[in-house]
Amino acid sequence: MALQLPTGNAPIAMKQIRLADIVVGLIGLMAVAASIWAVPGAGGFLGAGLALLMLAIAIVDFRHMIIPNRLSAAALALAIVNAGIADTASIVGGIAAAALRGSLTMLFFLALRAAYGWWRQREGIGLGDVKLAFVAGAWLDWVMIPVAIEIAALVALMTYVTWHLVAQQPFNATSRLPFGLFFAPAIWLSWLLGEVIIGL
Fold this sequence. Notes:
Elements: H1 10-38, H2 42-64, H3 69-86, H4 91-120, H5 127-139, H6 144-167, H7 180-198
């Protein structure tokens, strides 16, 4: 949902745009700082890049209900570099492990997409989410992959319920929700948790 400028109230609309931009900018700066603080060296800068890309994906998916391929590809490229430098024993082994995790996570999302489509006779999970799942698997260790999915699903569900209760709108099983809005930040947050708390 892009902010539009009503011609009769342009100054107020401009203030709203500036406030939204400032909030997004502050979130990005905090995420970058947290990444660099949590992981010294190149890994922290790669995590900072992940944070900015996930923030961009969340914003675009919220506004346009689509996850751009170029953003997912950029995040995947960073994941490959990160996997290569993280495994000091074997660069190839680290990249292969990341590719395996990404492939299996993507296949899981594809299975969910197919099952939902068969059950409801309509699309539930978009292909952008499926591609983002590959990115999640490439960035996260096995333990943190389900954590990211659970965080995204729970926050999305709470947001959906809260919005309908506040707006006093009836619940509708066919309502569309931009899952990338929740999944993308959850990927970065799970990476950060893995580095800080678990040390994966």
